[in-house]
Specification:
globular, alpha/beta, isomerase, TIM Barrel, binds phosphoenolpyruvate
Length: about 260
Amino acid sequence: MRPLIAGNWKMNGRLPAAMKEFDRLLREAGRAAAKAKDAALPEILVCPPAVLLAPFRDAIAAADLGGVVALGGQDCHAAEAGAHTGDIAAEMLRDAGATHVIVGHSERRADHGEKNATVAAKLAAAHRAGLVPILCVGETLSQRDAGHAPTAVARQVRAALGAGCTAANTVIAYEPVWAIGTGRTPTPEDVAAMHLAIRRTVEKAVGAPRMRILYGGSVKPDNAATLLAVAGVNGALVGGASLLAKDFWGIAKAS
Ligand code: PEP
């Protein structure tokens, strides 16, 4: 299975600096694609703020890297249209060039009070629009300290996945909340155990044991090779280290 290396820019990236950095990434990707056969490259996905999707889509097209670098949204509303000021429909993300969308990121769960039911509705909306949702799940530090990490994460997975979720149309990102933006990571053994537990939950819930499961949380160029080599890890969701092309590409190369 080709690894998926996804960058979550969060609320970062102002024009024109964002465009310059994205162009740097396209140059790295273009050089690598020229050298390698497509199958040897990981899938590269960038999830910028929604206002940057269309200019990034145009830059990908201008560089003729459509099959090499893809774009995703960071969130979507469950509805297709309506009176939801400030929200963005999955269909709009698709119109702007996205093929994927992150749903249930812990920052959305914390900052916007998103519950599992809301995340499930967003995941279904992504499928309705023909996008691949990247479902983020992960335990808080107190859940982990209490020994509840596997049950908390299994609950999030079961609540969000529904009929129609397949290995081809859905991705999961295991992101321990305490590892996001902190520089702390679980041990490779802990990552392997959680990924195995998630895979079993996915298999029971929707019968898709080959669904991609990414690891996310303080992935950097210097720890990427170790984390990406863990059994059951099919790629990474990268926050801070996706903002500079050289770091993000360093992670992609480690896969
Ligand atoms: C994230 O927010 O999805 C994330 C993994 O962030 P970071 O890599 O900065 O920990």
